[in-house]
Amino acid sequence: MALWEKTVAMALVVVVVLVCCFIAKTEAFPSSSQLDKISRLPGQPQVGFQQYSGYVTVDDKKKRSLFYYFAEAEIDPHTKPLVLWLNGGPGCSSLGVGAFSENGPFRPSGEVLVRNEYSWNREANMLYLETPIGVGFSYSADSSSYETLGNPVLEFATDFNSRAEFIWSHGLISDSTYRMFTSSCNYSRFVSEYYRGSVSPICSKVMNQVGKETSRFVDKYDVTLDVCISSVFAQSKVISPKQVAETIDVVLDYELLDLEIPTITIVGKLIKAGIPVLVYSGDQDSVIPLTGSRTLVHGLAKQLSLNTTVPYRVWFEGQQVGGWTQVYGNILSFATIRGASHEAPFSQPERSLVLFKSFLQGRPLPEAF
Fold first, then answer.
1. Does residue 293 form part of some domain?
2. 3-state SS, residue 145
3. Which residues constitute the domain of residue 95?
4. pTM
5. According to the UniProt entry, where is the signal peptide (predicted)?
């Protein structure tokens, strides 16, 4: 997945990402209010680290508040970095998807929680923030705040148009449909028309054919997986009940919206400020294909005059190839996670943890086993 998100579908932004994005700091985290301390989540196993959740008011006048969930590092939290996790989409919950489906300390199992042995709080203090206002448990008491969320007519050409080649190369569409999908109406044009509320006949024809050939029985977030009931349904059983909501101190009435402006320019500014950035992609994701992300990272490196410091190569998790990576100027890194879906820590948790740990330690991904 890319560090910036360019899709209205669920996507991860890690600032370091992410993607999100993730930003890691080596300083100790500030102490949290005891009022926000979670004694124990319903159905949670016994753990040795502290958890906190609550609201941060960002606009008193409009009564806008962001919800956060914080999980201390399992060992020596005061010496471990602080990582901010922001799920993308926009409109995707950092709590429900990020913490409880991807890299948080727990995974839902029926109506209880079980430990995630590849949780990222093994290596860092994890802070999950529901953003922007209107996503998940974050809210505004002033309804006008929701009207300015995002631009419904966005042009994400590189990422969106890479989808055609990805699904064609994986055998999901025919040669003739691929030609239509790249010449008659590409995906970025369809998205732009869709959010203007007027889809042209040719785009309707192309997208209907693409949908017919790919079928609804293929998971677009991981084209290799058999279709099954997503764990999202399982985690909704854990997060949604009133008992749990009251435990983590949330407002129960909220509205989910989506669409924000892409943040590729912000990524460039982070790099110019000396902040290392990692952009990673699950290589089985057709929603934000690795080819689009890789092209954008290469373009950003060229724009910033960053030379290649680690040529494109494989990296290892144990004795298996974990993916491929390339590093520019020792500050901008790209990596794929082999066999991973759109939510890489969910589908390939061990490989994702290797990638995360290497980045935090400022080391290249393992070159040998």
1. yes
2. helix
3. 32-140
4. 0.71
5. 1-28
